[in-house]
């Protein structure tokens, strides 16, 4: 019998792998494409298993997040969709209309994750002017964008003239279901990002740094939000590998990176180091590309960050120990965990069936899932 932690039950989100999926990092072996039928399978599993929501990422290497969420919303019943969007690629007025429309279509199941970007050439590939490779410019644009976006969704008539954006007498004709507006999620470790988060964010996200390190950012955002007369909730974006035993979980973690060679790691680390991102710098500093330094905290593993940019750590272990790590994050104010695992379909089942009971979270509709159905999912 799994012992439950005496804590408030956190929100657990999953991830829709719109850039593809697989069993090994840095390898085309058993690679799954972002075929919509597969994305639908992941979304339906997350919905049925009782995950609170799912993140859909943005970027030119991903299937378009808003379109995908709009296609998945009618197929699901309770799953919330956290749609990532890059300010500057779309006007805040159009984004507000799209958000309100999807919120109505899904009956209040949409949130927005703002992604300012990391200042690399991927921004140019998406059509942003070169000026936004500069960090201060990116966050100045984000500040203006989210200011207009929030005002419109709250029913205001908006006239605004800024350095980056302008709008005259803008107003939504059809508002969202959620009031005062669908939640805005946002992450960033630099000082400009923290100021935007404090002034405009509903949920501030940090990548999975050890709790004692993440605490400093959380406290900084909370302090700045208080000065603005606001309160912000906090979340962690990380990966997860949970199994019945510690030995099995760590074996799966090692297999995930077993096909990575040193040259692939070197190239990936070099590319990540060129990004103008404080968060990415902090991720790299956790391990420095060294395979011998991947366990950075009890049950927290940085192996994914060897080749993957962004969220590079994973919760690894048996249900009790992973729940204990979640407990540590809750102690510093975190109430939302956005998790993912390779492959995402199978790992959604492992996470719900093993972790949920350990944190007191109830599964919905799959407690009696047939073994044949589980085998079918695993063999996709």
From TrEMBL:
InterPro entries: Alkanesulphonate_mOase_FMN-dep, Luciferase-like_dom, Luciferase-like_sf, SsuD_RutA_monooxygenase. Pfam families: Bac_luciferase. CDD domains: Alkanesulfonate_monoxygenase. One of its GO terms (molecular function) is alkanesulfonate monooxygenase activity. Its EC number is 1.14.14.5. Signal peptide: none annotated. Keywords: Flavoprotein, FMN, Monooxygenase, Oxidoreductase. One of its GO terms (biological process) is alkanesulfonate catabolic process. Residues 13-336 form the Luciferase-like domain. Belongs to the SsuD family. NCBIfam families: alk_sulf_monoox, PRK00719.1. This is alkanesulfonate monooxygenase. It comes from Deinococcus cellulosilyticus (strain DSM 18568 / NBRC 106333 / KACC 11606 / 5516J-15). The lineage of its organism: Bacteria, Thermotogati, Deinococcota, Deinococci, Deinococcales.
């Amino acid at each position: 019998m799994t012992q439950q932690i005496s804590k408030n039950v956190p929100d657990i989100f999953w991830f829709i792998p719109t850039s593809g999926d697989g069993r090994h990092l840095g390898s085309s072996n058993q690679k799954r494409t972002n075929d919509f039928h597969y994305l639908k399978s992941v979304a339906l599993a997350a919905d049925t298993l009782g995950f609170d929501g799912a993140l859909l990422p943005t970027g030119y290497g991903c299937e378009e997040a808003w379109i995908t969420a709009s296609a998945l919303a009618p197929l699901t019943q309770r799953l919330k969709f956290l749609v990532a969007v890059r300010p500057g690629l779309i006007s805040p007025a159009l984004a507000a209309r799209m958000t309100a429309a999807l919120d109505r279509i899904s009956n209040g199941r949409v949130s927005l994750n703002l992604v300012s970007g990391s200042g690399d050439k991927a921004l140019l590939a998406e059509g942003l002017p070169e000026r936004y490779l500069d960090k201060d410019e990116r966050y100045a644009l984000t500040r203006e964008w989210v200011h207009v976006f929030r005002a419109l969704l709250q029913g205001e008539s908006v006239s605004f003239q800024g350095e980056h954006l302008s709008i005259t007498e803008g107003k939504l004709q059809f508002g969202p279901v959620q009031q005062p507006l669908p939640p805005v999620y946002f992450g960033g470790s630099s000082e400009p990002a923290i100021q935007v988060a404090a002034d405009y964010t509903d949920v501030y996200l940090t990548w999975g740094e050890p709790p004692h390190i993440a605490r400093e950012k959380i406290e900084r955002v909370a302090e700045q939000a208080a000065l603005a007369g606001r309160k912000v909730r906090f979340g962690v974006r990380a990966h997860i590998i949970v199994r019945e035993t510690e030995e099995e979980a760590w074996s799966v973690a090692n297999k995930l990176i077993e096909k990575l060679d040193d040259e692939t790691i070197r190239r990936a680390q070099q590319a990540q180091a060129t990004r103008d991102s404080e968060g990415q710098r902090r991720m790299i500093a956790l391990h420095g590309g060294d395979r011998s330094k991947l366990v950075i905290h009890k049950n927290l593993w940085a192996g994914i960050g060897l080749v993957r940019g962004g969220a590079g750590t994973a919760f690894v272990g048996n249900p009790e120990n992973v729940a204990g790590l979640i407990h540590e994050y809750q102690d510093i104010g975190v109430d939302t965990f956005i998790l993912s695992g390779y492959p995402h379909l199978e790992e959604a089942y492992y996470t719900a069936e093993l972790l949920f009971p350990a944190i007191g979270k109830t599964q919905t509709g799959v407690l009696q899932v047939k073994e044949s159905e589980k085998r079918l999912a695993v063999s996709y």
